[in-house]
């Protein structure tokens, strides 16, 4: 009996050991085996059930309780759960191992309300929730009162359901970009969009919000602004999309849509934006704009503004239709990209009446409408590593809105050779006139034409095109003698060649003087020489000790020189000719007049030149300076110049020019002056307004005077910054800004302000009986009324006509998430205003905005 029992037990043990061995070989299968004739045979295999969790759940907390029968784990206080790519931090977390559910909840207050949100971090993305359910098997989740940050915005939803890692659906959700609310500096946002449903699609590098009907709330007050739908892309990469316009109605242009368009990125370095303005009374504008950027190489912008302005009613006298255009191009090359080859462009070509005929009033507010001239330039510069040569190619276009003429230089090339010494130094230190002899030379090729707007690039323009070549050679040297004197010698040679010459004659039939342009190659060569001596003289006057002025120092730099050039108006040169004018008088003229290379000088010059430079400073007592003495500049420079021409047959003395520059009050007040004096007496015939210079020397009449003053004022110049904490005991905070309050509860803060004062006075006579006077005062400044209110403006007052010139007043207000601006031109020829309120955040700046502007026509009542 015992042997039988022992034998059966031994057989069972052998079966169990062998079965365990088979299980180790195939852990995913359970094997049933029976003994048949002392052998083991497999009857069938049963798949093992898959584990309910794909990864280990790590958890910790201050208090952990496990309910084994119910397969529940309860975590209290500072609870944390990590599973795969998700981490949950909360005050309370429960784990249901049977249903594969994780529940988390924030910290409760005494009333049972959550005051500290639970934190959920999945794949680097953070969420804040009141409560959170997560199914570890399906990876679905439901969150209540979840805060989700996306780029510049924040979404707070009553209920959020996560279907997978890419799709989230939110119910009764608020969206805002208020940074104060996002950073929890405020309990409620200053504005939000309330949507019934929001669907969020997340990608690897971007996400998109698809918003259903949404209503805008400002300070929790509903507004009439309702969006039927919205698609908000969040991405670090550029994406194409429609640009939302503003709309309105004006009497002169009708109903309008402004700024409707489309944005399209092109590759890695380009993007394109096309905007359009449409008006129901016929006006329209199309504005394409392309930006490009290649780091460390170049950047630029191309834009155009093409449109038609219609005013009045067709068929009536007030009807007008004007076509306008503007083409602009800016290109900048990085200085480190290629130092031997640089390219830059600043092109701005407009129609003659663009700035004062477009419906857009921005050109009035930025003062572009006051322009009288506009220049465009494209430049290509080539330098060489081994050659001392710089080649510059330029194309330029200059528009004069007053005359309607445009000057085109295309192309213009300059070849400049770097200055070099003609003779080598024997000792390594250059001394004497020969070793200091330098040569500067270059070649300039230019094609020039002055044409009207309608003739541009037509046969008429090409027929008037002039081509010219100029070469300039300048020789110069200097040396020092008698220790204190510098002696200089110089000579210049100008060579010119042109394709057009001038023939003048009087036409008795039409009774006019005719300028006939000939297609003829001609040239000239001229030269001049100079010699001068210069030194410096110092003088100082000292005053008694204790006086306010300690000393006055005067530095004088006198220079005297002689200039000689022959008379190139002689017949032997052939540069000048004569013709009989309408009065029968023989009148000389140059065949190079009105040409591109200029005209040779006429009349022999043997002139003694003089120039006296002055610098005057004084030392005054100063308590603010550590030395007790402070330097003040009376004149930074005061130059007097003129000449006496020994070869002149009449009026050998030239006009005397005096120019001065100085600054006062710690270089704040800048003063620039100029004065021209005629040493000869001027006589006026009875009834004539134009005078005649006589040979009577010594009258010294003022022919011109100009003075310009500029003084920038600011709050910093009138005392140090106040320490309000030491002055007022009460302190408060409004919108995260600190204020100090006095005993009457009035707030105090720094009111920064600036005011730039400019004054200009011009007096010009120029042989006329009555002088021309111009005097004006300009003001340009800003004032910070409060930390969030700012006023700025500019104006000019003409003291001669006693009228205000161009005046602009602007207001701006920082509304946390909003920006409010208002600009107004109340006086002058153009009277317009512009009002704007809009969201700061880029994601909504084009969608949520309001803009109102006047489209006042020139000289119309405001």
TrEMBL record:
<feature type="domain" description="LPS-assembly protein LptD central">
    <location>
        <begin position="210"/>
        <end position="680"/>
    </location>
</feature>
<protein>
    <submittedName>
        <fullName>LPS assembly protein LptD</fullName>
    </submittedName>
</protein>
<dbReference type="InterPro" id="IPR045659">
    <property type="entry name" value="LptD_2"/>
</dbReference>
<dbReference type="Pfam" id="PF19838">
    <property type="entry name" value="LptD_2"/>
</dbReference>
<dbReference type="InterPro" id="IPR050218">
    <property type="entry name" value="LptD"/>
</dbReference>
